[in-house]
Amino acid sequence: MGNISVFLDDYRTAPEGYVLTETIDECIELLRNYTIEHLSLDHDLVNKDRNGLMLVEMMVEEKRFANRITIHSANSVGGKAMYNCLKQAQQDSILSPSTIVSLRPLPLKYFPPRVLQHYLDVQ
């Protein structure tokens, strides 16, 4: 299997061409075993104790990243914390400065066409 794109969310459906993961455990397993082209992350998950920020912290600790990372959480506080953690990893030379890290919150019920293009551009 070549590069894959992964969408972590327990509520939204994944864009076409993305592997949907609903838990941080599923997501970290893919990060450990595949080259991830684009990783799009939500903060709030069903398991309130294992959220997107915990995943990002694990990624930094294990130095496992995608070529491009988007934080799509509608939780502004949680999403910003995830984004800031990744940007700090770039400043600390843990995450490559060439990795594009973006904060693009998504509505819960649909993908606006302009935002959806962000996901289609990866393919």
Radius of gyration: 13 Å
Number of domains: 1
Query: Please, what is the average pLDDT?
Result: 91
Widest beta sheet: strand line-up = 2-1-3-4-5
CATH superfamily: Response regulator
* CATH domain topology: Rossmann fold
Based on the structure given, which CATH architecture is correct? 3-Layer(aba) Sandwich
Structural class, by secondary structure, is alpha/beta
Strand content: 15-25%
Could you state the order of secondary-structure elements as H and E? EEHEHEHEH
Approximately how much helix is present in the residues? 25-40%
| Structure annotation, total helices | 4
Q: How far do the termini sit from each other?
A: 15 Å
Largest sheet: 5 strands, parallel
Task: Give the CATH class.
Answer: Alpha Beta
How many beta-strand segments?
5
Q: Globular, elongated, flat, extended or rod-shaped: what is the shape?
A: globular
Uncertain ranges: none
Would you write up a description of this structure?
A 5-stranded parallel β-sheet has the order 2-1-3-4-5. The chain is globular. The two termini are 15 Å apart. 33% of the residues are buried. It has a single domain, classed as Rossmann fold (3-Layer(aba) Sandwich), CATH 3.40.50.2300. The chain has helices at 24-33, 52-62, 76-91, 113-120, and strands spanning 4-8, 18-21, 36-41, 68-71, 100-103. With 123 residues, the chain is of the alpha/beta class. Helix 1 packs parallel to helix 2 (52-62) and helix 2 runs parallel beside helix 3 (76-91).
